[in-house]
Amino acid sequence: MGGKVVIKFGGGLITDKENMCTPNMHIIDSLVDILSKVEKQIILVHGAGSFGHMKAKKARLAEGRLPGLNQDISVHEVREDMLLLNKHVTDSIQRYELDYSTYPPRDWAAGDGPNFKGNLPLSDGITVVFGDVVDDYEKEFAILSGDDLMYRYATEIPDVDCVIFAMGGVDGLLKVPPSEATVNDLFKTWSPDMNFKGEHATEFDVTGGIGLKVTRASMIAEKGIDVWLVNGMHPERILELVEGKTTIGTKIVSGNC
Ligand code: IP8
């Protein structure tokens, strides 16, 4: 089977968001188990969850260098914590004996947002990258979200035929905040001309939460690529999508469709 799949394991899926630097190992393993069944080239992006957002938020790292604040320790710590989370993911990949290379964005990317600088690394095996603290030409450092990596990989490398954002605890994009949602509140398809009341946990999330995800997903869909938001706690849904089937989740479609 040809083609490439670009998939994000959301930070809220692979970590315990309530407890600092706590991985959800059984979820990571169940997701990697699914990857081991995928017969396409895989680009795997993972988010930060409780390994990145809490400390980054406290030290205001997303704003870059701020006078009067000692942010250097936090830059160092968040980078170390992200390497640790990455190791949990790659250890799991190794347990499944899959070929991979991991490329910390601090080593090759600069700046934040969809126009960050840097050439996207690609491996013959699974390419692994993650949201990270990167250098920034204007503000000295910045937080590059995995959602921006998703956008660039999905739209810049050839032959991507499936893009999947695997999230924690929700089946896709909901019409109301998750705390109020019933099964009927799942958008089966969504385009930018439709509204939703996204809950962005600003007290936790330094990048952009569901709003950023949906914005980048729409930008990818505009290029004619299939993009889905699914519940990563049901990893078999990922496989269904990779195999070209449909599943429970939200398909993001371009506003022009
Ligand atoms: O969770 C954020 O990446 P994201 C990266 O993919 C850090 O938005 C270090 C907070």
Main sheet: which strands, in order across? Answer: 3-4-2-1-7-9-10-8
Give the second-level CATH assignment, the architecture. 3-Layer(aba) Sandwich
Output mean pLDDT: 94
User: Number of DSSP strands?
Assistant: 10
CATH class designation: Alpha Beta
Number of domains: 1
Taking all Cα atoms into account, the compactness measure Rg is 17 Å
CATH fold call: Carbamate kinase
**Name of the CATH homologous superfamily:** Acetylglutamate kinase-like
What best-fitting shape do the alpha-carbon axes yield? globular
Report, as a whole number of angstroms, the end-to-end distance.
Answer: 27 Å
Query: What's the SSE pattern?
Result: EHHEHHEEEEHEEHEHE
Small-molecule binders: Isopentenyl phosphate
Low-confidence sequence ranges:
none
Oligomer: single chain
Helices, by number, come to: 7
Instruction: Give the amount of beta strand, in percent.
Output: 15-25%
Helix content: 25-40%
- The secondary structure category is alpha/beta
Strand count, sense and barrel status of the largest sheet are:
8 strands, mixed
